[in-house]
Amino acid sequence: MASRANYGVAVTLVTLLIISATAGAYYYYEYQQAAQSKNQYLGELRTATTEYDGLASEYNASLSLYNETFALLTGAIAVVNTSLPIYQQASSQLSQLWGRYLSLKPASSSLYAADVLIDFGNGTRLWFNDTKVQPGWDAYVETVVLSNGDLQAQWYPDYQEHLVTGIDGVSDSQTMGWFLWTYNATASWQTSAVGADLLPVYNGSVMAWTYCGETASYAPECTP
C-alpha cells in the first residue's frame, strides 16, 4: 500500500512538474513575443522620429525661403509705380505666394491679424477680418495682397510713399477718390495722417479704404 501511495505522489509531482514546465514555456514564449513586438515598435518609432525630424527641417527651410522671398517682393513693390512691369510681376507673385505660405499653417504667433474694410462707395463693402500679415508689413503691402495686385498707385520718392488711385478696378475720377482710415476704440474712425506706406500694420489693427467725393478742403465726404 505504501508503495502505491508513494507511486501516486510521484505521479502527481511529475504531472505538476510537467504542467509547470509547460506553463513556464508558454509564458516564456509570450515574453519573447512581447519583447520582439516591443523592439519592432521601438524600431518603427525611431524611423518615424527620423522621418519627422527630416520633414520638420524641410518645413522650416521652406518657411525661411518664403520669408526671404517676401522680403524681396515687398522691397520691389515698395519703390515703384504700379504702371511698371516689375510691379505687375512682383505684386502678383506676392499675392500668390502669400496664399501658399498660409496653407502651410505657420505658427500663428509669428503672424499678425488685422481687420480691413474696402468700401467702394456704391453699396459694396468688403470686410477682410482677421487678415494674416507679416510683422513689418505696412498698409500699402497689405492692400496689395488683399487686392491680389489689382492696385493703382503713383510712387513719390521725396515722400517715400504711394498715392493710391485705384483698388480692384475702381479708379479715382475728377470727383471721387480713395481715402485711407484708421480706427481705435477712443477716436473711432479717423482719416490716416500718413500714406499707406508709412502706416504700419500691427496685431489687432483696423483700417479702411473708402471711395467717395471730397469737400473743397479735400476732406472725404464719407466715413467707413
What can you tell me about this protein's structure?
The chain is α+β, with helices and mostly antiparallel strands. Helix content is about 45%, strand content about 25%. It contains three helices and eight strands; from the N terminus they run ααββαββββββ. It has helices at about 1-75, 85-105, 140-145; strands at about 110-120, 125-135, 150-155, 160-165, 170, 175-185, 190, 205-210. The strands form two sheets. The chain has a five-stranded mixed beta sheet. Strand 1 and strand 2 form a beta hairpin. Helix 1 (about 1-75) runs antiparallel to helix 2 (about 85-105). The radius of gyration is 35 Å and the shape is elongated. The model has no long low-confidence stretch (mean pLDDT about 80).
Order of helices and strands: HHEEHEEEEEE
Biggest sheet features = 5 strands, mixed
Q: Tell me, rounded to a whole number, the average pLDDT.
A: 81
Summing up helix and strand content along with how strands pair, one would put the structural category as: alpha+beta
Spatially, the strands of the biggest sheet line up as 2-1-8-6-7
Tally of individual helices: 3
Number of extended strands: 8
Beta-strand percent range: 15-25%
Radius of gyration of CA atoms, rounded to a whole number: 35 Å
Terminal CA distance reads 114 Å
- Unreliable stretches: none
Shape: elongated
Helicity level: 40-55%
Question: Concise description?
Answer:
With 224 residues, the protein is an alpha+beta fold. The chain is 46% helix and 23% strand. It contains 3 helices and 8 strands.
